[in-house]
Structures are given as structure tokens and as C-alpha cells.
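Consider the following assembly input.
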Amino acid sequence: MNWDWEIFFQDPGGQHTTYLEWLMSAWGWTLSVSLLALLLALLMGFMIGTLRTLPKHPGWVLFGTGWTELFRNIPLLLQIFLWYHVIPALVPPLKELSGFVLVVLALGFFTSARISEQVYSGIRALPKGQFYAAQALGMTTWQSYRYVILPRAGRIILPPLVNEMMSIVKNSSVAFAVSVSELTLFALQVQEETARGVEVYLAVTGLYVVSALAINLLMGQIERRVQIPGLVLPGATGGGH
Amino acid sequence: MLDLDFSFYNWAMISDFVLKGFYFSLVLTLIATLGGIVLGTLLALMRLSEKPFLVWPALVYVNGMRSIPLVMVILWFFLLVPLIIGQPIGAEISAVVTFIAFEAAYFSEIIRAGIQSIPRGQVMAGEALGMTYAQNMRLVVLPQAFRNMLPVMLTQTIILFQDTSLVYAIGAYDMLKGFETAGKLFGRPVEAYLLAAVVYFVICYSLSRLVRRLHQKIAIIR
């Protein structure tokens, strides 16, 4: 096997001056898709997961459970196709949205279902007395969640949440299917153009690994920072994508 | 605006386009699950062996696989396997090899957690009875571990079934591809994707309900 790393300094023609620059731009797209989708997923996931635990609101519980099951049981690739081909056809105003936005929505909603599941079990893992104690102090349901339940549940689910953040970067690779110019699409296109598949794939894989490691390190710091002193938390189990 | 027409979905079309893909998705899921569990058990035992020359390869393999997107792994195998064996292979065979190798990493983590969930006393009791390592694993630890982790494994299999759609990247013909091809051919892609979503949802949702039932039934109470 002979290496040829020179190809990264060649001119692909078109808008990028070198393949290296194209690679970096693709990495940028991967990170932007992932970060925006993560924000959406955290927001929706915490909301839906909380709704599913509300006492005396069966309607919201049903809605939350339905949401979670809907977005969990359809393959991500198909969900992206649905956002890209089906939803704009049914709701014409959405035709204006770019592929990038649609992928962020698809990945965000898909991940929101998984995060909602974790938020739900995080809240359920708390002793019921926590909620009653908050109520006894005269807190409203909103206040109990805001000041007692969610701060504790959030810490419990931090480790699986970190896994989810690393998954979202990996899952963003599916965006290639609707031509968002992120890392995987770069790998496919440049492999075809240059026939240096191994070098190209190695570079792309390396960047995925670096991204995942960076998230892991960053979240490790945050986890230590927000830890409640003296409180031992149960660990999380494997599985997932 | 709502101008849907599902009339082209008759049985002939389904058996022509969708069934072939469904069959491939199903076979791929089954082979990858079985292969993944066998290889995954091996990896899990290596990681728990406390022998550095066994622990490290398993550790690197499992963590490596788990930090790469499945689509990239699919592309890697599609690129590398023909280079290594010296002749082109079909997308379908490449997909099978990839999924076994990829799922083994995930299954090995589940199995490792399952084995570690067995109290040390069980292993010691086996040793006290004079069992060898292999006997202890086969007769005492693994049967209990597998029972504990069955629900998680089945959930992983459902995820795996959904992930088979990613063979799209190398153009293999799975169920999603079947729906897509039919939709393109009849000029009705919107309906095709909608129906695909319904079919995937019904399959995966019913399976996950079954797993939940099973979970309640077989959990070992300690």
C-alpha cells in the first residue's frame, strides 16, 4: 500500500482551493448540524420528558409518550427523507427551507425522543418524597420541577446525555443522503474524484473521532463542575447506535 | 395541497419492490444479531480476562467502532474488503460483514455489563465446586447474564433493524430502498415515504412493546 497524502493539497476545482480546505469546511458543516440539532433536541427532550411525568395531566402524558414513540420507531434516514421530500409537499411554506435546516430539524426531533426517554427515567428515578417535600413547602408544580426535580434529574442523566451528544455527531453523517456537504458526503465525493479512498476515509474518520473525544472531555469537565458534593450517582448501561 | 394517491400500492407492486427489500433487511438484522452476539461475547470475555494482550485489542476495537458513524463503517468495509480479498464483492455481502463487525462492538458492551451484573459469589461458588474457567462461564455466569440482558439485546436488535436502512450509502437493496424505488417508478415518492414510515413504525413499535412485556416477565428478582 502506498500512501498519497499530497491529494489534500491539490485543487479540486470549484469553490475550494484545496481538498484540505474542503475537508475543513465539511467538518464545519458536521459540527454546525450537530450543535444546532443538539440544542433543539435538548430543548424538546427536556420538555417532552417532563410532560410525561406530570401528575394529573393524562393528556400531556399521552402526547409526550406518543411523541417519543413516533420519533424513536422510524429510522433516522427515513425521517430525513420525510422532512426533505414529504413535509414540504404537504406544507408548501416549508419549501423555502434549505436542506441544512431540514436536516437539523430531523436530527433534532429524532434525538429529542431519545433525550426525553432519559429525562423521563431520570425524573422517575428520584424518590417521590422530593416532589412531595417541594409541594409541602408551598411550591407550585412548575416551581417544584424548576427548583427541585429537574436540577437533580439533570445531574442523574448527565452520563447518558453525554453519550447522546456523541451520538448526534455520528448520526449527523446521515445528512449526506440529502446532499448537505458534511464529512460523509465529502468522503463519498472525494473518494470518487481522487480514487484515494483510504486517505480520504482516514481523514474523515479521524475528524469524527476527534469531535467525539472533544465532547467527552468537555462534558467530563462540566460533570465535575456541577456535581453535588457527597452524592454518589448510579452509572449508565450500554446500548444505542 | 393534500393530493395523496395510494392506489398504486397493490399487492403486485409490494411483492415486486418492497418484499425483496424487507427480506434483505430482515436477514441482515438476524445474521448481524447472531454474529454480533457471538463475536461480542468473545470481545466481552477478552475485556474481562485481565490479560493485557487480550484486553487491549478488544478495548481498541470496541471503542474504535463505537466512535465512528455506522455510515462511515459501511463505506470503509465496502472500500477495504475488495482491496484485501482482491476481487469486488456485492453491496449486500459487504453490508452483512460490516453489520456483524459493527454490532459486535455494541453487543460486547451489553454482554460485559451483563456479566458484571452477576455477583462475584456466583463465580467463586463455581470455582469452589472445582469448575474450570470455561465450565464456570458456560454453566454458571453466561446463562444468568444472558437472561438479565435479553431485553437490552432485543432493544439493540430493533435499533439494528432501523439501522439497516443505512446500507443506502452503498446502494444495497433494503426495505427503504424498495419503497423508494417504487415511489420513483410510479412518480409518487411522497406516498411511498409515508407508507414506509408507517411500516417501519408498526414493526418497531410492536417489537418494542413485546420487549417491554418480556422484560417484566423474565427479570431475575434479587
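Chain B touches chain A at residues 1-2, 64, 67-72, 75-76, 79-80, 106, 109-110, 112-113, 152, 155-156, 159, 162-163, 165-166, 168-169, 176, 180, 189-190, 193-194, 196-197, 200-201, 204-205, 208 (CB under 8 Å). Ask yourself how this observation constrains the way the partners meet.
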